[in-house]
Amino acid sequence: MKKLSVFTAVMAMSAALVFADAKGTEIMTKVHDVKKPKYTVAKAEMNLISKNGSVDEHRVLWEYGSNQQKADKGKDITKIVMNFIEPASYAGTRFLQIENGPEDGKFVRLATDPSPRRVNSSEDSKSFLGTDATYGDLKTREVSDDNHQYLKDETKNGFNCQVVECTPIASSQYSKRILWIDKATMYPVYTELYDKKGKLEKVLTVKSIKNIDGYDIPWENEYKNVATGHTTTVKINAMVVDNKALALMQKMNINPKTVFTQNFLKTGK
Questions:
Q1: d(CA 209, CA 83)
Q2: Is the N-terminal amide bond of 87 cis, ω within 30° of 0?
Q3: d(CA 13, CA 138)
Q4: Distance of CA 255 to the CA centre of its chain
Q5: pLDDT tens digits for range 171-217
């Protein structure tokens, strides 16, 4: 592998900094700092849709979430569990992701294999449970992971947006992301993801946002692979947050202290 000279390395760094601007970074900081519930419980449905529009598979899942904002050296400690209950052949498939803190990692338990396993970082570009998202797509990128450039204001899908281009500093499977960020909620409602060759690979669309007890929640999401035409949609049917979420967990005989563990992946309890 050819090594960069000190001069070449400095020039490369300078070129990267051209793509950063204060307004873009300010917008993305606001996106990152949006107020989030400490706990969530949601029931959702997922459809895997072929290029011709037919539904290849319909799934139903419970999703449990926990968020401690800026709890780990200024980074959020977030935990999420997906517990699939339909179809019958897929019931018992569970996924756990913990970001930051001492337990950081992704773990999956398939209905066909009762033993959870860790998803290694080398698998980031692989499909997440047969969907159009990859395991890497699930990871939250910190503001410092990218350079940010404000491009323009534009209306997208009925949302009044600011458009920001993000190019990676830290490792990424994409060469860049372009985000249309709703000014009212500071949520990205449309995201274009470009592959390493600069070609548009995927589009993520947030079709609706609901306010639940003071929190803005993306309610309907569509993830489309531009190359294959295949699409994954996720729609929340019901959600409760914070103390209501804790109460519902207890009603479901789920312990909030143990739900975000590999043992829950094994037992569902």
A1: 23
A2: yes
A3: 28
A4: 24
A5: 999 999 999 999 999 999 999 999 999 999 999 999 999 999 999 99
